[in-house]
Amino acid sequence: MKRKFYTFVSIAVAASLLAACGNTGGKEAEKESAKAGAHHTNSEALAAHKDLNQKPVPLKMERIGPHDVKIEMTAQITDIEIDKGKIYKAWTFNGQVPGPLIVVNEGDTIHFTLKNMDPAIPHSMDFHAVHASPSKDFVDVMPNKSGTFTYPANNPGVFMYHCGTKPVLAHIANGMHGMIIVKPKNGYPTDNEVDREFVLIQNEWYKYNDMDDFQNGVPSYVVFSTKALKTGDRNTNGDTFTLKEEPLVAKVGDKVRIYIENVGPNEVSSFHVVGTVFDDVYIDGNPNNHLKGLQTVMLPASGGAVVEFTVTRPGNYSIVTHQFNHAQKGAVAILKVTETGEDDSGH
Ligand SMILES: [Cu+2]
């Protein structure tokens, strides 16, 4: 069974490489990638990644016209601490896992460039927020090459992005995922009520680069991260500890909005905040999908939402997936609510 599966993976990898080399060429890269692909099944870093820890490259995002945004991202190999002292040599966008938050406006055209800094294997970008031709716009960018693609973002909401290179599961599980917010033209009906906004992303970690575990196992960790919506907000990686040790902070009486996205790759999220009820929920972040009074919001793998709730009393509110086996594996973030709206514990 196992051998069959490995053969399948090798064929899939080879096929994707063959498809890719029509676009950007490079016989050497093709050979390297094929070698690298053969390692997908054994929990080890690819030979070319072993001594690599590429410094995170900041996201480049620039508005070049009223309805045009230029975005440049990197595919790179960077060490991420996923649990205390446990380093994962992740396949990343810009050296973060999840990748950096992207925010554009409904109706924007995205002029997107992916710079592949990975010396060994191709990577690509699949934005769930756009209409595109997957076979032309989400194509592989070969090692040390760049690819530029243009597409409109006409649907408002909270969307996933991820690397779409085969085997897609390996690229997502190794860290190549993130969130893009397309801000609705006319906003949300509750915009004026909201006092604080945060971003949260849920993702899973498995045994290192182990296709068998990715496909047949259960996650070792399920984690949350937060990303900066505005200057001064934090960017954290998906790990088991940061959002417990340094909580998100709100003030008693605040209406809090969270842009939440479950990037998986495999599990659903039963998103819940202990001690409150979601007054307003916009499924996938679309203002038309307005629900009221939910206790838990179901997020499929790749699903997003905007959730809003009021914190009426001071204290620590646990933000969890109510699949408590996953909460136990890390998926708990703390929202600390104080009288002042500042963290009073000395953080
Ligand atoms: Cu990739």
From TrEMBL:
Keyword hit for Endoplasmic reticulum: no
Cofactor(s) required, per the database record: Cu(+); Cu(2+)
Signal peptide extent: 1-19
Catalytic function, reaction form: nitric oxide + Fe(III)-[cytochrome c] + H2O = Fe(II)-[cytochrome c] + nitrite + 2 H(+)
UniProt KW keywords: Copper, Metal-binding, Oxidoreductase, Repeat, Signal
Family that this chain belongs to: Belongs to the multicopper oxidase family.
Plastocyanin-like domain location: 77-186, 232-338
GO molecular function, one term: copper ion binding
Alphabetical list of InterPro entries matching this protein: Cu-oxidase-like_N (IPR011707), Cu-oxidase_C (IPR011706), Cu-oxidase_fam (IPR045087), Cupredoxin (IPR008972), NO2-reductase_Cu (IPR001287)
Organism of derivation: Parageobacillus thermantarcticus
Residues that bind Cu cation: 123, 128, 162-163, 171, 176, 322
Enzyme Commission number(s) from the entry: 1.7.2.1
Residue stretches spanning the membrane: none
Superkingdom per UniProt: Bacteria
Quaternary structure and interacting proteins, as annotated: Homotrimer.
Enzyme class: oxidoreductase
PROSITE patterns reported in the protein's UniProt record: PROKAR_LIPOPROTEIN (PS51257)
Name of the featured protein: Copper-containing nitrite reductase
Pfam families reported for this sequence: Cu-oxidase_2 (PF07731), Cu-oxidase_3 (PF07732)
